[in-house]
Design brief:
single chain, 469 residues, mainly alpha, Gyrase A, domain 2, 3 domains, 4-stranded antiparallel sheet, two-stranded antiparallel sheet, 65% helix, 6% strand, globular
Amino acid sequence: MADNKKIAERVLDAVGGKLNVIDVTHCMTRLRFRLKDELIANDDEIKKIDGVLGVVRNGGQVQVVIGPQVGKVYDELQKTGSFSEKESVGAEAGETVTAEKKQKKTAMGVINNIIGALAGCLTPLIPVLLCCGMAKMLASVLGPNLFKILDTQSNMFVLLTLIGDAGFYFLPIIIGYTAAKRFGMTPVMGMLFGAILVHPTLLKFAADGVTFSVYGIPAPVQNYTSTVFPIFLTIWLGSYVEKFLRKYIPDTIQVIGVPLITLFVVLPLELCLCAPLGYYLGNGIATGLVALNNIAGPFAVAVLAGSWTLLVLCGMHVALVPFVVTSFATLGYDTFIVPAMFAGSWATFGCMLAVLVLVKDKKKRALYSGYVFAWLIGGVGEPYKYGVQIPYRTPLYASVVSGLLTGLIAGFMHLTANVLNTANGIYSFAGFLGGDIKNYIALIVTTIAGTVIGFITMYVMKIDESLVD
């Protein structure tokens, strides 16, 4: 196995060195760089690095696909680059000209930047939301809804409910932190603006229909708990205010001057404009997803399930994170994106099994068996995608076709995700626990159908072993 420190050093060198990095984060399998000049990054050199599975450019990021050990490589990268919070904020504040800014502005480019920014703010939340989702799932499964092991008054049931609700209830505070880091604002200020939105007094005003104003400007009050867009818009605008003040206020009074003036300037923007606008935007998206599912139904799920593998390969699957979070925060369930992801993933699993049967070379079969194990037990699909689907091609086509058919089945059976869970492999079942018996039947049928359809589709399409040495 490649040395994590060497991988980090070579990757950092290939993206243009420390001075070209605005910031770097990671998800479950990828290092995600935002660079001052994306044109400097050499994709070919990155792909040659032992331990790197591939490179994807999307949403203003250069994504280096590492696999399950990405966390260790990231830690080495932090040490190698000696990255600090100050450097990240400085770059965010506009001290450099990125390749993104150099490019000609287009409608699609603007949309991609918005989605990229949203994903950048919400992707770091996934571990928190997964933990909260699992707690809610346990409360539902062990509580009176299913096994009746826990009484609603028991301490354990209450504890699980507290954990499950906390992450979603205080979502504006958490997003306030991640959005502030993304847009170059002081993180604790972002948390403060999020806390204002969920203050009990504001919630009481919303419940009682009390009118409220900021500096005489009417502020439509809503219940902003479990919302995404109100705080996202607030921090986006607020970051420009703070950067402006940071630039012109003398250093001697910046410590108190910048946050204080930022607070009182941004408050009316938050409560009178951003929060109400974001509230209706979030509700509109949730309503739109429900309407799309009602109109297109199984066909919408089928199309997304069939294209899921392609979205992951292109790094565009992260663009769906805002919609998934909004759906769960607003509706409490999802009948579209997570079920489609589940259907597409298990169809791909069936293709994996067929590949093991079709491949005759023992060394390749042993290697690909590791890929299957990594997906099933580790929840990581990148090794298979970059090691088999792309070089052989037919496994990719088979995943698309079988995903489409499996998604159709999941859609017709109204498979519903009750817990926000985007994990792969055996962990993916957790997202569908807690529903009624019909949903469990749909879950079992989708899993079996996906595996069988994927296997048959791949077996029929065959595989040309000569394409890979």
